[in-house]
Amino acid sequence: MGAKSLALSFSVQAECNVSRARAGLMKLPHYEIKTPVFMPVGTQGTMKGLLPDQLETLDCEIILGNTYHLGNRPGTEVLEKAGGLHNFMGWNRGLLTDSGGFQMVSLLKLAEITEEGVKFKSPYDDSEIMLTPEKSIEIQNCIGADIIMQLDDVVQTTFQDYDRIKEATERTSRWLDRCLKAHKRPTEQSIFPIVQGLLNKDLREQSAKDHMTKNVNGFAIGGLSGGEAKDDFWPMVSLGTGILDKNKPRYLMGVGLAIDLVVCVALGIDMFDCVFPTRTARFGCALINKGQLNLKQKQYETDLNPIDNDCSCSTCKNYTRAYLHCIVTLETVACHLISVHNIAFQMRLMRTMREHIEKGTFPQFVKKFVNELYSDGNYPTWIVNSLNSVGINIVRK
Amino acid sequence: MRFIINQAGSGGERIGSLKGFVKISTAVIETPASALFTQSGSVVHLTNEVLSKVFSNPKLLWVPLSKSYQLETGLKAQGEGVAKFAGLQNHLTCVTLHGASEITPSGHFESDSVPLWTKNGKKMISANRYMDLMEVFKPDIILAIADGHTSLDEGSKRISKALDRTSNMLNMCVTRHKNSTCLQDSSLIGVIVGVGEERKCEQSIQNILTYKENLSGVTLEGITDGSEESLTVPLEKLEAIFKRVGDALPKDFLCIIEGCWNPAVVVTAIEHGWDLFDGSYPLKLTNAGHALALQLDVNQDNKELCILNLNDESYKDDFQPVLASCECLACKKHTRAYIRHLLNTREMLASVLLSIHNLHHFDEFFHHARLHIASRTFDVFKKHIIKQYDFYKQNKKDVPIPTIQDVKTSKKKEKNKKRRVSDDDIDNVVKSDNSL
Ligand SMILES: [Zn+2]
Ligand SMILES: [Zn+2]
Q1: Catalytic site residue A98?
Q2: Which structural domain, as residue segments, surrounds residue B345?
Q3: Structural domain spans, chain A
Q4: Cα atoms found within 13 Å of the Cα of residue A119, Cβ hemisphere only
Q5: The domain A2-274 belongs to what CATH superfamily?
Q6: Residues B306 and B268 in one domain
Q7: Which ligand neighbours the alpha carbon of A313 most closely?
Q8: Which keywords, in A-to-Z order, does the entry hold (chain B) (predicted)?
Q9: Distances from the Cα of A253 to the Cαs of A32, A221, A225, in angstroms?
């Protein structure tokens, strides 16, 4: 059983018999994706200095592009001539684009949101631009990603005003209809609606239920991971996965920290994206199971170990922490090397979770993972509570 | 290491090979050749993984100490030399004091030491200290420490001093090299300085020849101080130098030319028996957003300029590869339009793709040079290259360059520019609790 469409078919392959975790296969026009999946972010049609070939070697199956940036540069005209972003950047696997709304609202203080769309001044030439749901889909149709996002009315996550949140949530549903109507390539691209409602339970429930009535191939959960307390964050994820169709993929936007991935997979999320692994690489931070190494620190000056002895990425095979220490923030190569490792780290974590879900050992894996991360046994409450809510009982030592 | 001349061409040009390296006994570097320029021990912009997609055989890495001085502590801890430490153990290394294209402040010399300009400022380096560092870097080839970073029109007094200093330091290098057990696997190269003054230059050569038994070759410094002006010497003048100095050297010496010399200069030097170049030229092109596009087939005219400035807006929807005949990964999989977009958005992949292409193509250029020497048609090839370069010089148009040199400068530039939406901005608003 599962969603079947030319643009996307999803089938659950295995389910955890304790938590809501599941392993699935999502067939997209360009590639077949194994879920749960982490999608690295390649904002401007490139992944921080890595070749598409390297991303394939790293087992990346789907990456993310930013509509707002790509619409400006290279622009839709060039992308159209190139035959879409896949061709333009030489990437033959899965692609997902955001709607462009998030960037505008978060970056441009002068953005004004009306029922029609988001009005803002172009940072490139100061001209006034209106991004409507129709316009967003038009650009995304041109970029040609396998999965595209509806334009949503974005309010900052920690925002408190109920009326504004309500307005944004309801408007997001209305904009979804406009997006679906404007969609020109439904057999090649799937629009995902975005569940909104910030930290308000009722509004989120309403939003998810509204979206459930639409003919769509998958869902996104948005408006989280914006600085809210973790104790407020996970119930909203859980609420979403509790309502959304089990036979369709669920994508949690902007989440990518290892522990968040583990918890949210347990809560039933299938797809994630985050700039964090590649962004942090630039500053010399390498991800490991126990957290991260800041390779700039003097303690690594003569450390001849690889970043992670258990990692089989090309960086860990060839380079020591001592060498990376010498070149971080100095050579572009350092950034490439740590990006490779950090993406490998994310991919390995997702692969490990899939394997455990398939083998029926996911709860044990989660316990072991949390135990390793908080070896003092001092588990944060939100982790204990969220995992307990899906039957994985971890107790503070 | 041994340098063997396999075949002489019809002029002074010759085909040789560097072999017998202790670290990689099977490695052979055929000359004329270009080394690969490194910073911090890495081929600039390319990781080990990507470099192996460009070259499958061992290459000679050019390692300027000025740009790798900070590796010392780590190198000591590891004890296996710079190639291994930088993850490039399948390649050979040649260490030198400065890159010839670096612009360094003038002066600051002392009687027995020269200033080394590193990222952490000035370090005074004596010949002794230099050889200490060589014992740590363990290169296959060592260019002796010298005071050679001067241009052709440098004053006479300065050149005299450079000559004396270089001569004293060479003496020390030779002594240390002879007596160091761990440097027996490294070959030492003498440095010719003061090239602008014929008599001083002769002296410099004579001085080097006193150590003939201890040296494997020479490198030609004292032409450029790294500045753009010092590189714009008329080709005839350079040719006269290449010939004069080349003729004065023993034939079995490996002859190296340092500096960021264009293909027209390179073919001219090759014709007068120069064997090895430092590889800074393709890097300079890459950092400027330029792609080398020589027509290497002497039977065909180049229909475009031999250097493409991919910053130019005219490439924005040019979906051809950089060079249709090129077999490199960048040309096989990517387009001019994509590279132009990456340059325009100051993305690091631009430098990666351009490095892949420029290094591959520059290597092919030397491969073709060797083929023509072998078939005694080098003069045809030389004319063919000079013609293309002259045509480029007359017809190039200047386009402002958004340089992508390293992580730091590009970030600085980002800040200096008018506020634009950048990745950083997005990242800043994404999650505040993302640090462990
Ligand atoms: Zn790794
Ligand atoms: Zn190429």
Answers
A1: yes
A2: 292-427
A3: 2-274, 281-360
A4: 6
A5: Queuine tRNA-ribosyltransferase-like (3.20.20.105)
A6: no
A7: 1
A8: Cytoplasm, Metal-binding, tRNA processing, Zinc
A9: 20, 6, 8
- Tell me if B152 is assigned to some domain: yes
- Amino acid identity for residue A33 in this structure: I
Residues B139-190 have pLDDT tens digits of 999 999 999 999 998 999 999 999 999 999 999 999 999 999 999 999 999 9
Q: Give this complex's ipTM.
A: 0.97
Chain B residues closer than 8 Å to A233 by CB:
none
Same domain, B232 and B358: no
Is the CB of A77 less than 8 angstroms away from the CB of B317? yes
Has residue B361 been placed in a domain?
A: yes
- Give distance in angstroms: CA of B227 to centre of ligand 2: 28
**pLDDT average, residue stretch A368-384:** 94
- Residue B59, helix vs strand vs coil: coil
Q: Are residues B245 and B303 in the same domain?
A: no
Q: Give the range among A39-43, A149-153, B7-11 with minimum mean pLDDT.
A: B7-11
Does A53 qualify as catalytic in the annotation?
Answer: no
Q: Is B86 domain-assigned? A: yes
Q: Return the pLDDT at A110.
A: 66
H or E element at residue B189: strand B187-192
Confidence of residue B399 (pLDDT cuts 50, 70, 90): low
Contact with chain B for residue A89, Cβ under 8 A:
yes
Q: Which three-class secondary structure state does DSSP give residue A358?
A: helix
Per-residue pLDDT tens digits for A246-276: 999 999 999 999 999 999 999 999 999 999 9
φ, ψ dihedrals at B164, nearest 5°: -60, -50
Distance from Cα A309 to the centre of ligand 1, integer Å: 8
Distance CA(B27)–CA(A244), nearest Å, equals: 61
**Do B332 and B229 sit in the same domain of this protein?**
no
Asked if residue B302 and residue B277 are part of one domain, the reply reads: no
Cβ–Cβ of B48/A318 closer than 8 Å? yes
Confidence of residue B101 (pLDDT cuts 50, 70, 90): confident
- A-facing residues of B in 222-241 (CB < 8 A) are none
Tell me whether residues B47 and A88 touch, CB distance under 8 A.
Answer: no
Q: Which two tokens stand for residue B1?
A: 């290491």
Exposed/middle/buried for residue B161 (C-beta within 10 Å: 0-12, 13-18, 19+): middle
